[in-house]
Automatic annotation (TrEMBL):
Organism in which the protein naturally occurs: Caulobacter segnis
InterPro entries, sorted: DUF805 (IPR008523)
Transmembrane region(s): 21-41, 61-83, 95-115, 127-151
Protein name as annotated: DUF805 domain-containing protein
Keyword Transport (UniProt): no
Amino acid sequence: MQFLKRGLGRLTDFSGRDPRRLFWPYAGVLFLLLFVVMGGVNSTFMARAMTSMQTNAPPNFSLMVGAMGVEMLVFVGLLAAAVARRLHDTGRTAYWGLAPLPFLAFGIIGFSIVVRSFDKPFSGLGTLFVAIFFNNVLYLAALVTLIVLLARPTRPEANRYGEPPAA
């Protein structure tokens, strides 16, 4: 559990280096927690929206979309410093970790607009849907690129971010 203690203890420390053996278990635990929390919270909101449909009221998915946005922000916040340190360990700047974020933000905002327009006519919905689709393709490309960079081996020599992590 050293990886979890280290990751949570250095939430605001964007300097230094983290080896793969500490980063990936920490990221894995955060992913698992994200899916458990999203599943629990979002199923509650979905059940509430479906119940409203039984009374012929339009479903309100706004709370669910808002919760998803908050959940993603918390997840990114918990992972940001660890991603920066892991990128430093491969000799790269932490700015590489920002590549997926604009696409994630556009996707969340666009999806919330689509969800809010379910019960009323919205003439630009088709165009917005296509934009969200291509945004998601770019998001996945940026995310895969980031994952590949995070999976790179530790640079054994000292770099501008510090000495290599102890074995």
